[in-house]
Design a protein that fits this description.
It is a single chain. The chain has 116 residues and is mainly alpha-helical. 18% of the residues lie in helices and 0% in strands. The termini are far apart.
């Protein structure tokens, strides 16, 4: 029996700063280059049907920082279909939401104040 398990690089476009992980491009998989088992982030991504806003506030690696804060979208406004940069978005101080020891030094802004 031949089974093909593939990572889909285009899924990274569904995530803020999804192309920032050169050492772990298959961010949703246990194996850095993809295929095989999904990690907790990948499982959340799948459960929420690739809808970033539905799991942005989750802390999939249980390090005390929610996914949006780690990926530079602390207000959870990123939309891959929209070319506009969301409020509060950053491209620096990005951490990997699949690695418990990798945390950002960034702090969450007052999103309600930014949106108002």
């Amino acid at each position: 029996v031949l089974v093909c398990v593939c990572a889909y690089p285009e899924f990274r476009a569904h995530l803020p700063n999804g192309y920032s992980f050169e050492k772990h491009p298959a961010i949703g998989h246990v194996e850095p280059l993809g295929g095989g088992q999904l990690n907790s982030f990948g499982k959340a991504f799948k459960v929420h049907r690739l809808d970033w806003k539905k799991f942005c506030r989750e802390d999939t690696d249980k390090d005390g920082q929610y996914n949006g804060l780690e990926l530079g979208d602390p207000c959870c406004l990123y939309n891959h279909d929209n070319n506009k940069t969301p409020l509060g978005f950053r491209t620096d101080q990005i951490s990997n939401p699949t690695l418990q020891g990798d945390v950002t030094t960034a702090t969450a802004p007052d999103c309600d104040a930014l949106i108002a």
